[in-house]
């Protein structure tokens, strides 16, 4: 995730990320520039007079396209922000669970188990949400969970079983066990919410139509611009193409907040924060 100062205008304008976007779009921008130059050559050199095409249609379509792009970016940001809220809640729930285990029982084995299991659940959730990356979720070391397919569930089940054992052994009262179970239930809820974001992308038909709309809008721009801008249509069309496609690229990047792109959530840092907090709470005398 990129950390920046929102009040530093010039650093944002000339940030390296902007150059990365330009490099990514450069081949397509050059293609649009060559295409526009071809239209200009036909209308300005081969034809006696450029075609007088009204820009009213593009003005109306531009307004409609802007509404589509606003909805697209809002939808993508909602997914990003929902993921951020869920992981923020996971930080709080992990701390609360560790505090309750530490204060409710003096069992060193319980402290050791949850000291391993809470970060294990969090790290396995991170890897579970990145199925296309090389990292594999690490299951609990116990034999009954070592071959688990859904690793975060295995960690949660391991903690639930250990809490139930503490209750049966008399190390926890029914009320204390209920409070610990509430935290475990909340962790499962966060797991389900993150899976919902991961496995329900923006509908294909909407994404496909928007990309097609942008393509048709930009491709037909030179026809209407040549009569007004002449050869200046080349940089104008390239600029419009860069702006429209950049907005779509931003939406594509943030609609999956759990990946490893520069604007995705800092899951590695959050995992380190949770692990450090849990070890501090359950490791002190």
Q: Characteristics of this structure?
A:
285 residues, mainly alpha, 2 domains, 9 helices, 75% helix, elongated
List the helices and strands and how they pair.
Layout: H1 9-13, H2 16-46, H3 56-104, H4 108-128, H5 151-168, H6 174-199, H7 204-229, H8 233-254, H9 267-283
Poorly predicted runs are none
Q: Provide the β-strand percentage band.
A: under 5%
Q: Mean of the pLDDT scores?
A: 85
Number of H- or I-type helical stretches:
9
How many strands?
0
CA-CA gap between termini? 36 Å
Helix content: over 70%
Structure class: mainly alpha
Shape: elongated
Question: Describe it for me?
Answer:
- This protein has 285 residues and is an all-alpha fold.
- The protein has two domains: 9-49 and 203-254, no CATH class; 86-200 and 276-283, no CATH class.
- The chain has helices spanning 9-13, 16-46, 56-104, 108-128, 151-168, 174-199, 204-229, 233-254, 267-283.
- α3 runs antiparallel to α7.
- The two termini are 36 Å apart.
- The model has no long low-confidence stretch (mean pLDDT 85).
Short description:
The chain is mainly alpha-helical and 285 residues long. The chain has nine helices and no strands. The protein folds into two domains: 9-49 and 203-254, no CATH class; 86-200 and 276-283, no CATH class.
